[in-house]
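During the reporting period the student researcher (J.K.) took over the structure-prediction task from the postdoctoral fellow and processed the backlog of single-chain submissions. One of the processed entries is reproduced below for the supervisory committee.
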Amino acid sequence: MLVAGVALTAALAAGTVGCGSDDEGTAATGADGADTTSVEADPPAPPTKAEYIAAADEICTRFDKKQEVFKVRSKLTDQIVASQSTEGADEVADAVDAVADQRQDLTDALRELEPPASGRPSDYFAAREKSIEVTRDLADTWDDYGKGKADGPTVDAALLAELDALEVNAKQGKKYGFEVCSAPIKDKK
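J.K. obtained the following structure tokens:
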């Protein structure tokens, strides 16, 4: 029921949208008739695409260093695959959910970045959200597997769906120009 050769990977990535304003100062005269015009500084220009990519890749680098959830997931998965038992499937489900939580935290951090004038890479973010959704589905599948439910997708099918979603996410990131945020990370054992 489980495919021992399925590699577990995680994709990370970046982007967000922001709003600016073009308010200019207003002219006024004081009680003595002197010009008291104040000129508000224009808001800073949005980052260039290159600056945005660099900032996003920096965030992805920080998250890439947080490998513990991936190590736990891999270890627990390997144990279940080796034992061909459902014992511990609930722990794998929890570990997979922790991976989804970390992916969501990364996505949220990336959304906080001010995007370049051209906007955020919406296809990339759609792919990130899909990969998180599919990872949560995998956690549910592991939970069902541990409970002996056979009416849903198999763990193998859910793993493959996750890997497919992660591949699409990585391709969208690479297409936009991300480096770190488009590279799937692997468990660093």
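The committee noted the following: The two ends are 25 Å apart (CA to CA).
J.K. will present the remaining backlog at the next meeting.
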